[in-house]
Structures are given as C-alpha cells and as structure tokens.
Amino acid sequence: MISRFALVLCGCLPVFAVEFLDVTAKAGLAEFVNRQGNAKKDYILESIGGGAAWIDFDKDGWQDVLLVSGETVCALFRNQRDGTFQKVPLTAKGMGMGVAVGDYDGDGWDDFLITGYGRNWLFRNQQGKGWEEVAERAGVLSQGLWSTGATFFDYDNDGHADLFVARYVKFDISKPVQRSSACQYQSKSVFCGPQGFQSDPHSLYRNNGNGTFREVSKEAGIRTATGPHHGMGVISLDYDNDGRPDIYVANDDTPNQLWRNLGNGKFKDIAVEAGVAFSPDGLSQSSMGVDAGDLFHRGVQDIFVTTFEGQPYPLYKGGKDGFFEDVTWASGLGRETLPFLGWGANFLDLDNDGWLDIFMVNGHVYPEMGGRYRQKPLIFRNLRNGKFTEWPLLASALPGRGAAIGDFDNDGDLDILINNIDASPVLYENRGKPAGNWITVEAPVGARITVRTNGMSQFGEARSSSGYLSSSDRRMHFGLGEAAAADEIQITYVGGRRETLKNVKANQRLSRR
Hints:
The model is unreliable at about 1-10 (pLDDT under 50). The chain has a single domain (about 20-510), classed as Methylamine Dehydrogenase, Chain H (7 Propeller), CATH 2.130.10.10. The chain has 5 helices and 38 strands. The strands form 10 sheets. Strands 1-2-31-30-29 form a 5-stranded antiparallel beta sheet. Strands 3-4-5-6 form a 4-stranded antiparallel beta sheet, with no helix packed on it.
C-alpha cells in the first residue's frame, strides 16, 4: 500500500512530497509475528512488548533488522542489499520486551541486549560470523526480574559502554492477578493495570572493561528513588551539555525520571525540578516511549513522551539553564494526541529540510476496545515556528508497539520499522523525493554532533536506544535542504575530545569510531 501526501504551507515553506510504501511482504518480514501471550490479554504481562532495531551487525554498510519476540526472544534478518532480508539463525526462548544496540566489549562490532520477563539476553557479536549469548557471564542476566527499556552509554567517560536497565512491575506468573470486576476500563472488565503493583528498582551496570559488568545502582544513587517506578522507555542524553551523559526514564502511571550525572559516579533524579516529571497539569501519566533532540535549533535537546489514551503526549522544550518548558499545547500536539494510546516516539527529518519532525506509534492495550485496539501511527511536521501539524502519511491502523528509524536502502531518506503485538511487523519504505540533501555521521554513543549549513545549526547526540524499547539506525541523519555541502561538522566525543570537519560534501556517510 502506498501513502501519499503533498502540501504547501503559509507560502513560506517549500512544496514537499513524501510517499511511504508498505514493503513488509516484499522484504521477507511478513512471516514474523511478535506473539506476546494470549491474544485475549488476561494479564498485564501480555500487553506491552516489544521493540525493534536497526543494526549493521556484519559491518557491510547496510542496516539489518532486529525484532523482539514474546516467544523466541528475538529474530534477526540480514539486509540482502536488494530490498529483501534473510533470517539469521538465533537460538533462544523466552518472553522478550526491548532491545538496546551497542558495542559493549569494545571490539568494533555491535552487540545487543534483549530485555525480558524473568531475565535478559546479551548477544555478543562474533565479528559478523555468529552470536554468543553471554548475559549470565557478563553479569546482566537479571534473573527473576521484569526488564523493559535499556540503553548503553559511557557514564564515567572511561571508554567502555555501561548499561542502564529499567524495570516494570513485580509480577509472579505463578500467582498472577486475575482479571476481575475490580479492574474496569470504560465499564469493561479488563486485565489489571500497573496501579498497585510494586516495582523493582532500575539498575545501572558499570562496564569492567573485560566483557563483564558490575551493578552499581546503590552506590550511584539510582536506588534512592522512593515509591514504585514502572519503567518503560529509556534514553541517554546530555540534557545540560556538561559533557556527562544523563538518563531519562518514561514511567507508566508514576512520575518520569531524569537522572542527572553528577560526574562523581553518582546520579540524582531532578525530573521534578527540571519540569519533565509530570503532565502539563502536574499529574503522573502513563508514559511509554521517549525521544530527545533539538527540534528548535537552539543547541539544546527537547524531550517528547508518548502516553495513554486521554492524556496529551507531552513535549518539553529544553533550556540552556537545564530547565524545561512544557509546550505540549502551544506546539499543537496536545489536542491531536489525546484520542490515542502511544508507544514508539521518534524524532526524524523526513523531508531533509534540516528540521526534525515527530513520529509516534499507537495501539490500545485492551482488546475489549474493539475498533480502537488498532490505531494509526502519527507523523507531525515541524513548521519551524514552534508548532507542528499532522502529516497524514500512514493511514493503516496497527496494534503498534516499538519502532526504529533508519535508511535500510541507503537512498538518503529515512524509512520506518514498526514491531506490532500479535501481528506481523510493518516496514515502510520512504519513496518520496525529499527536496533536501543530507549527510549522516556514525559516531560512538554519547558523541554530540553539530552541523552548520548556510547559517543554520543542527545538533544531535548519538545514542544506543530511542523511542519505545527500540534502537534506531546508529548513523545520525541530518537534512541539509538545498545546500550542496555542510559548512562545518563538529563532533564532541565523550570525554571532551573534539573533531571539526570543514566544507563536507552533501549526500555521503561519514564514520567516526
């Protein structure tokens, strides 16, 4: 199916045409189904997985597909460079939830962590020739815990990829909370949500530099959080531009957390004082996915979160003082997102005009909602004036969960991979003809990249996870508009080292390791 849309705005924005084609079947991905328990959804455990990722595991320059599964942990598909993918053998069994991609052992080959119910799985890349599951040996098994979002990041600037893992709720499958009349949603009996469940603390693992990790949650201050925090999406970001990566956790029905890196091995949750813990009216929301980026070209990162039906998806505008302003309603996102239940959340420049747009995946948790169980994804175009307008490109309703953004066909525009629950994934190929040129920069996680072109400055940060339990293309994508070259690209690595490139020709891919 092809989705087309063309629009002229205000006489001040160029005519643009973006077109998406569902190529799932052609690509060879339609046979995969992310089954998460019983389709009837008697328990909360069956409702929230799973993530998706792009990963170039064989280092051939083409993005491969990774999809999380509720039965077989995950499925990996090699990019055949002709628009199709071939399944790669992986042997594992269990209920996967999310994924984070990163080179944890520093050998130059991307590995990946799958979070799940009851344990995690860490797959070590054997230089593109196979995989070894090493979670227990590496010290990140998390036996008996329900893990959700995760991200690799170097919090202590020692050159090794550390790991943060969020936990959801304490759920004993041998003594599950049964569906009962006590759990109602819109006068319907449904499975019991997270309200009232206790949760295990989120975990921080320090990389020992020898292929193993040591949990340092308590000494780092992560376990000082009071009350339950039902963790979902997780990202690393240097929100205050101090050179130290911080962590944002989207929590379900509990306040969101912004863990500020204090630089001495410790973290402090400053979400309330920074203005990113609650909804515009000061309430906890059922937060799911999260992404961050410089939407307004100010050199600081803004944060966007997806939430439950009836709750506006909040957009927090970052400030150079480290505080955020809630611009959910002022940006035009509040009213438009209220009817939806959101999961995936991603910033992306769909038309290569140099301004980040916003993509979100939706889908209900309760099959009892009938026609509202499947919901269409939403895309909002950046109008460059602090406001966004819906870009009706994707009309098909889906039981969506995680999403990953990447250029799988290496044609210079961004494609979308969605992992659905109890259904096949969807791969949307961007078939439009963006007016703008582009450039991509692949750099180590935590690197901050500034691209200056014709007086316009874009800012981005390399990260190992984004959105809802997912990982996007590690190559940072920058639209250049009509410019034939970037005047300057500045890369600031974790630890402070800087590299500056001048007059960089457009429409090419740079790699920095």
